[in-house]
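worker-03 picked up job from queue 'complexes'. Input manifest follows; three sequence lines, order preserved.
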Amino acid sequence: MELQARIIDVDYVVEDNEVVLRLFAKTEQGENLLVHEKNFLPYFYAVPEEEEDAETLEEKINEKEFHRDDGEPLEIVETDLKEKIDGTEEIEVVKISTKVPPDVPKLKSKIYDMPEVSHCREYDIPFYKRFLIDKQALPTEKIRFEGENFEAEGFDYALELEDLEILENNEEKPDFEKLAFDLEVIDDEIIMCSFYSENFEKVLSTVEIDEDFVETVEDEKRLLERFLEIVEERNVDVLTGYNTDEFDFDVLRDRVQHHGMELSLGRNGERMKFNRRGRFAGARLKGRMHLDLYPFISHVVSPGLESETLDLDSVAEEMLGRNKDDVSFEQMEEWWREKENLEEFARYALKDSELAYELSDELVPQIIELSRITGLTPFDACRLTYGQLTENFLLKEAFRENILAPNRPTRNERRRRGNQGAYEGGFVYTPESGLHEDICVFDFRSLYPTVMVAHNISPETLNLESCDDKFELEEFDFYFCQDEQGFFPELIEGLVESRYRLKDEMYEVEEGSREYERIYSRQQAQKILANSFYGYLGYDGARWYSKESAQATTYMGRKYIEDTIETAEEMGFEITYGDTDSVFLKGDEIKERKDDFLDKVNSELPEFMELEFEGYFTRGFFTSTESGQGAKKKYALIDEDGEMKITGFEQVRRDWSSIAKDTQKQVLRKVLENKVDEAVEIVKYTIERLQSGDLPLDDLKIYTTLTKPPEEYGSTSPHVEAAKKAMDRGDDVSPETTIDYVITRGGGSISSRAEMTKYAGSYDADYYIDNQVLPACIRVLKVFGYTGDQLKGKGKQSGLGRFQ
DNA sequence: CTTGACCGGGG
DNA sequence: GTGTACGGTCAAG
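worker-03 finished. Artifact:
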């Protein structure tokens, strides 16, 4: 039988000491296909000692017998000699294939003990990944499968693989059935579960609610049954949500167990399993893609977001332009307790899956593209960090180029790398604090990637012996050989050029069309990867670690930005600010002469590097440090449309009360509108309102999450003290509770006066003035000569008589 | 300045 | 699972 389908998930099972790879795939018609592959074997490489030759080593390995520690034989199925590239050298290695994947690390340590063996390589690459890389059978690409068919429960087709062919026609965007969900939990019980998909919205509720999207179920057990049915009935390929790994699936597992049920969500009815990986556990559903958006956002998306908190509402606000209409958990609890406003409760429940669904519309295609580029399953691609995504891309590309991957550093080696100390980063120009007008911002397009290409910076071109053309860095005693393009520059150039082509194509198709979305996601994934190489080279857990390469990259980056500043000065422009890859130039003229400036800079840059115009801002505000100098990385800009861009101010952090954050934001806006007097008035008014004592406590709440039972904390901090006091009143305060507290009036330390908001009868106006509102606002207004005392009205600042 | 504890998202 | 992987902030030392 022959079928065309796209792989969406892979794993393996061991049956009678034989390994079977299971490829879960979808046909274009939406049918489910299971492919068994029994001919692909796990393997690793042994590198002979220098004086040994690989052929003799192979013979010696074949003569020997190996055993596990428990005495069981470790069978070698076959050995092969392979020519591989190690750095820039060609070496001959022995490829050793085993019966089952877990034998690889065991056999590797036995082989490593042989005196003829220098070391082993590629012994820790997960088996499914090895298969995808070696066959270049990347997830979600269209593949023709050929084999003998067999019956398998839960699948439309199942076949034992004989042959596969990667099909050229991969341009269509695959169509997957997607479903977002979200649980509402009160007192450790699931009371509602919402679902959202195209033309589908539903809330399962354990109480009667009169809304047409609500399906009332008799109890939690029935809710869980319906959950399983809905995933099954809708033939879900992509199950998504927000923080579903750490919360929803954790709850689901407990509650399903409580009711003596099974969380059989796999395509074949297999149970959900947590895949532990370091700090995180991913909830894995065999044959479906469970893509939790939170890890992807926190690892990959957040560097490009302005929002400092990554809660669903903030992220949706920034990415989707949705209004933030958060209801507090306490509010929801109260509605539930009092059984009031349940219609609204249900709408909120639904809103969370809807937001997750809409985010997934943009993010799932990106995750899928990253999975294709890196050869990881979408499940992994959405949970790995930048460094790990990069490394998997490198592993896949290394295989294509017959390059032997370096080993991962040992714990000791990591520590050694970590202790080497930091190297210098980007150049930051010290701004003059205060208000600046008419600012043009320029930045380098992908500065670090293009620097690496321009100077052939790569781990294996570093200090290459027998080199004709050396790029030497004055500051350091190392060089990069320019004779042949290195591994990293080659990959970067490939990604960047492919991205340009895609962007050209993107402008030719209709915005918002499926084709547009596909191209957009692909170029976005390429951008993510291209920008990750520099950080990867300096990441102490990297296989291709090269501190020198990272150092040289930032060094050259500094040089280019400094040269740019010099050019600007020569052309008579005033520099306002600059950070790593950007320069801010001031003055009327620059707006008209910006193209001359760009032309001059770009004509002096190496090919591939480019300075671009980023935007024009009517005003910019720069704050100052303690010593009165202009502060770096803390500024706010406003454009002609009144849009603010705030960098570095901590006004969105949740451990600040909203009164402090809101006031700071208003002050920044007034300052940017050149209305400092009004800014001062806002602060004074806020202080007055605080002093009057009748501000709602909601404006004064500070949030912090408890991570363990309050009694286990060694140190005292306000949120812990507040939690302890709530417990004394009989509250059940468990770990993972977000404590919202208010500092109340009275004597003693700040911590001793912290009370959870619901128990706080008063607030300490002085605390909020001195520790919250003033520090946030003084950060801005000190630049204009204001002190805390003046803002409090104690000073002689005039013109605002009624506040004195 | 360095070191160690804490925290994130979710309800 | 061919396992055991974060990164930033802040108070204390």
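worker-03 released lock.
The first helix of chain A runs from residue 54 to 63.
The longest strand of chain A covers residues 2-15.
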